[in-house]
Specification:
The protein is mostly beta strands and 393 residues long. It folds into 3 domains: 145 residues, Acid Proteases (Cathepsin D, subunit A, domain 1, Beta Barrel), CATH 2.40.70; 135 residues, Cathepsin D, subunit A, domain 1 (Beta Barrel), CATH 2.40.70.10; 78 residues, PDZ domain (Pdz3 Domain, Roll), CATH 2.30.42.10. Helix content is 7%, strand content 47%. The protein has a 6-stranded mixed barrel with strand order 4-5-10-6-9-8. A 6-stranded antiparallel sheet has the order 2-12-11-22-23-13, with no helix packed on it. It has a 6-stranded mixed beta barrel with strand order 15-16-21-17-20-19. The termini are close together.
Amino acid sequence: MHPLKHPVLLLVLLLFSMPGLAQKHINTTRLDSDLVADSIAFHYQHYKLIVEAEVNGVRGRYLIDTGAPMVISETLYEQLKPKTLYKRDVSDANGQRHKTRYVKIDKLKLGTTSFSNITALVLDLKKIPLGCFELDGMIGSNVFHELVVHFNWQIKTMVLAKERSVLGLTKSDFKKIKFKSYQKTPLVKLGFSNITTNAIIDTGSGGFFSVSNNVLPYGKAKNTIVEQANGAATFGVFGYNLDSKYYLLDIDSATINGVGQIKAQVTTSTDKLPKLGMKLLEKSNLTIDYKKGGLIFNLTEPINRPFYTYGFELAFDGNSLIVGSVWEGSEAENKGIRPGDTIMKINDFILEEEEVCSNFFKIGGMLKEQDTIKVSFKKSTGIETIEFKKTLY
């Protein structure tokens, strides 16, 4: 068994599923700039790429999310009142469906690059933990469908170009990839345990990579299962699903488009497709050619990523920290901890005395440093305090 060295804390996975929903209307964006190359600085905050951009002349903060289409917040919608195109059901990463407004954005300016006629969704972006990033929206793959996008993690910039050659790149540098047509989401081939499956390059995810529960019955995938958890595996834009199940996998050798030898313990999810998140992508050279369907993905270091847990994982419900999931057979399960239990205190950190986003940004680092934690839960019988150790499954 490997020591479990990375906690699952609030994986924000923001892919949208829009089966059969007027797909041709999503990729409407026009590039208005006579673009050569535009270098745009981003803030890198808790595995989120955040840029400054203007939508219809109003400046704001936007998440760069290759796993989603363009989104504006409900707050910005009320300010701008853009034209509504239609309303359709949209599913989030947890399969929760909501009727969602699609609007027309007349102008988007990112760096010195201008776009027009963008189709965007309107969503509530105030829910915790997403609300802690104070976003006005998300700039998704349907904006970039005519461009080459290069990410430089070291100097925290993304470069937009109209042609590969501007970046000093040629056809031989790229591997051919496909896209999900309705929102231009880039797809790569994830290989492990004699299985090859499509996976999404998702810069909106703060996770490492996740594997869909759908692949577990095939090949040798089921032989990689270490343990099962009950409860929420991910946070979607419409919240958590505390009734789901997911698994911890021990993967000896995973490859992305045939590249790299990734040894990792990773969790599964209820998503239809696996996702590559920022904890993996930040360790790569990454360039996506949306225009011609090409990808450069090279790992910059060997990946050996184990995983730890105290037997339960955390989530936010409104302003409260709760138990998102519990691992079967763990000390937490044996002591009666269940998904949805409210957490009042961790060690000497009293959650009610702190602002909710302060809790969100502090807790992950605090847990990483501790070999044991003492947690106070609010139960129907009163406050119950239990000490937990980092556990091997």
